[in-house]
Write a structure and sequence with these properties.
Strand 1 and strand 2 form a beta hairpin. Strands 1-2-5-4-3-6 form a 6-stranded antiparallel sheet. With 313 residues, the protein is α+β, with helices and mostly antiparallel strands. It is flat. It contains 13 helices and 6 strands. 24% of the residues are buried. Helix 5 runs antiparallel to helix 6 and helix 7 crosses helix 9.
Length: 313
């Protein structure tokens, strides 16, 4: 099965530990005969630098056409989530109460999944002329994912979906209409009539055995948190070319091997310091650093704090 990159990790440019996420709101709906829509809103940590990101995922399985879909994924930050949005509150409605205790800055993850039975109706009968036609008819032979630029029109639709006040049948009509616009803008911006899809996918990852090797490489990295391992050693352990390993890892997990490894080491360091109460010296040694200063520099680069500053919080 094709495993597209995690949108949150792409937006953060490194894997996010899901135990760090505080869910503020979760909603999922299946629009009748149309799109499956889901939204998750998380509290944004002050130190997180999230880049607004969009991804188009084309999932194709020849042996199981009922599982084919096109999915749009978006991660945007900087919006304000209000716990009392549904409650009568003139100040919030006027957006004047910036100090309201119920308002928090959020990271919003939205997905829109269109099944093949819904998309095929948009293609005119006859010869397929464009890449867009191939995608909508699910005749493009392999799965892929593609980064989407978030143009002004797309942002406007996403903001409308986050802030609307429709309910029941009117909400279904509104979400269906807005999701169709997102699909239009995404196909228009990213696929077009004269562009090829192939440059945007890692072809060897279509091979199940190669994907398993990449997944195994990630497991080995996690097992070597305290024993640094080189990419050459890692490639030998999973029996795959170094270049393929680096490209495949970035395609599968949305980050480089080095950035992933560093983020995991520092998250483990944070746990050892803050939860287990170990000293900076002990943690530095456990993670295989040659000196405390090297560990301190790496920790601050990753978290924005020196190890000693974390202990004061």
């Amino acid at each position: 099965m094709y495993n597209p990159p995690d949108i949150l990790s792409l937006a953060y440019k490194q894997p996010i530990m899901h135990d760090q996420l505080q869910l503020l709101q979760e909603k999922e709906q299946q629009m009748p005969g149309s799109v499956q829509y889901a939204i998750k809103r998380y509290r944004k940590h002050s130190q997180w630098n999230i880049e607004d990101t969009g991804v188009l995922v084309y999932h194709y399985k020849k042996s199981a056409p009922q599982e084919n879909y096109v999915e749009l994924r978006f991660c945007i930050s900087g919006n304000m989530y209000c716990n009392q949005k549904e409650v009568e509150c003139d100040q919030c409605k006027l957006n004047t109460s910036k100090a309201c205790a119920e308002r928090v800055e959020s990271i919003d993850v939205m997905t829109f999944r269109f099944l093949s039975v819904h998309l095929s109706q948009f293609v005119k009968p006859g010869k397929l002329k464009t890449i867009t036609d191939e995608v909508l008819q699910f005749v493009h032979p392999s799965s892929f994912s593609k980064i989407l630029p978030l143009c002004g029109r797309t942002r406007q639709v996403l903001e409308a979906l986050l802030g609307h006040t429709y309910t029941d049948s009117l909400e279904n009509i509104f979400i269906n209409g807005q999701s169709q616009m997102l699909l239009l803008y995404s196909l228009e911006c990213m696929l077009g009539d004269d562009k090829e899809i192939e440059p945007f996918q890692c072809k060897f990852l279509a091979n199940e055995a190669d994907r398993e090797k990449i997944i195994k490489a990630r497991e080995i990295l996690l097992q070597h948190i305290g024993e640094p391992i080189t990419i050459k050693e890692l490639s030998r352990k999973v029996a795959i070319n170094e270049c393929y390993l680096k490209k495949g890892f970035k395609e599968l997990y949305g980050t480089t091997i080095f950035d992933f490894y560093q983020s995991q080491r520092m998250e483990h360091a944070r746990y050892l310091l803050y939860e287990k109460g170990l000293t900076v010296t002990e943690v530095s040694m456990m993670l295989g650093y040659s000196s405390i200063s090297h560990f301190s520099t790496a920790f601050k680069k990753q978290t924005g704090l020196k190890p000693c500053e974390l202990l004061l919080h």
